[in-house]
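Deliverable D5.2: sample structural annotation.
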Amino acid sequence: MNKSELIEELSMRMALHPKKAESMVNTILNSMITAMKDSRRVEIRGFGSFVMRDYRPYVGRNPKSGEKIKVDSKTLPFFKSGKDMRDRVNNES
């Protein structure tokens, strides 16, 4: 499911105008992004949590040429699914 499909699903289920549903989805996502930029953990009970993880620099390879390249250190979001979501995904058909 992508963002457009999520907006469409919310619009249909909640009988909302698509622009209103889009605004709601954008508000939620922007709030999550702001929290992660501030190095705060985002936890949605029953779904999962997002945290920022620091990664050390390393030497990688350009997949096209095979040339070695230096990859700088970076901070990226990491998602860990919640137990309830894992159980529901694995046990429902």
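Annotation notes: The chain has a mean pLDDT of 94. The longest strand covers residues 48-55.
The annotation will be released with the project's public dataset once the embargo ends.
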